[in-house]
């Protein structure tokens, strides 16, 4: 009779251990799922950051190109300003010469 009393206790303890293991495994699966989702979200954020970097790099390259063009335009404008100043000085000299001749 002792053996029949031990049998139900053993079965109950095995069921309890099995239930605990199932609960533990379920918790582990949930934790793993959360980590995978976090990793997926991290990957999305990294992809977005990479896209933003490419956009910014293109903007920087475009800005550098614009600055180079502006520098060239500035140089040409300086040359034109110098030429105009020389022509103004030359025209003043011509005006002085004309005044002198008309006297």
TrEMBL record:
Location(s) in or outside the cell: Lysosome membrane
Which keywords describe this protein according to UniProt? Lysosome, Membrane
Keyword Membrane in annotation: yes
What's a single GO CC term here?
Answer: lysosomal membrane
The Swiss-Prot or TrEMBL record describes its family as follows:
Belongs to the BORCS7 family.
The cross-references to PANTHER family, in alphabetical order and at most eight, read: BLOC-1-RELATED COMPLEX SUBUNIT 7, BLOC-1-RELATED COMPLEX SUBUNIT 7 BORSC7
The protein here is known as BLOC-1-related complex subunit 7
Organism from which the protein derives: Triplophysa rosa (Cave loach)
């Amino acid at each position: 009779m002792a053996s029949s009393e031990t049998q139900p206790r053993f079965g109950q303890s095995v069921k309890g251990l099995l239930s605990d293991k199932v609960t533990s495994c379920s918790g582990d699966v949930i934790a793993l799922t959360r980590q995978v989702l976090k990793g997926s979200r991290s990957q999305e954020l990294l992809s977005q950051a990479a896209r933003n970097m490419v956009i910014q790099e293109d903007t920087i390259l475009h800005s550098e190109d614009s600055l180079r063009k502006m520098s060239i335009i500035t140089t040409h404008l300086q040359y034109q300003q110098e030429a105009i100043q020389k022509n103004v000085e030359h025209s003043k000299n011509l005006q002085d010469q004309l005044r002198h001749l008309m006297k």
